[in-house]
Amino acid sequence: MERKMHAWRIEEREIKRQESRRGRRHAYVSLAPERTALIVVDMVPFFVEENEYTYGIVPNIALLADTLRARGGTVAWILPGVTEPTALNEEFFGVEQARVFAQSGGEGPLRERVWHEFDIHTEDLIVEKTATSAFFPGFSPLPELLHERGIDTVVITGTVTNVCSEASARDAATLNYRVIFVADGNSARRDEDHNSTLYTIYRTYGDVRTTEDVIQLIDESSGSVAEQVEGAGHQRLRLPNR
Question: N or C: which end of the chain has fewer CB within 10 A?
């Protein structure tokens, strides 16, 4: 399967509006790696195998995980919880599709459900969620686990951009986390869906950054960030110039 990347964008007028409000393009210009968690949403075979854009973001997520982990940060792998379909879901999605979604997380130990190209370490978090959001109280243990580690900043990656990734970013912001949404580390079915979420996040819920940008925030002392990203075959994209 081919790896594809979204042609993402945020309108220049929105960038200028945010700059006029806060005096800078990006909400967050620094982070403390030890208080930062990379949140990897739903990167399981059910989603990766059916979408070239999802397959395409795997290298970027892997690079972010390795970089943040090496600097003392947390990597959290979020999986769809395997459940029985509710009557409401059957009514909404239809009986057959509701069952497909309820089983999308796969079978077996949690570690084995994550897409096989990722390197999962012992200190990483692996949790299930039973709602679209990884941060909705009562449907995921993630907020409590992050609180125990003193996390105040979350970097959101994964799929689907405009469903579980966006829902997680919204709820994380509501819980007072500093949210950074990775433009080339999330995937949707279409550029239009992806870009709509980027606009919403950037406008209201968090910052929007590239993989390269986040690595620079994690380790400002690194002099070879661009070479790392290009060498891994990543598409280097930035927000439009002023």
Answer: C
Task: Calculate mean pLDDT across residues 133-146.
Answer: 96
0.85 surpassed by pTM: yes
Contact 214, 186 (CB under 8 A): no
Rounded CA gap, 177 and 151, in Å? 8
Give first-to-last CA distance, the chain, whole Å: 36
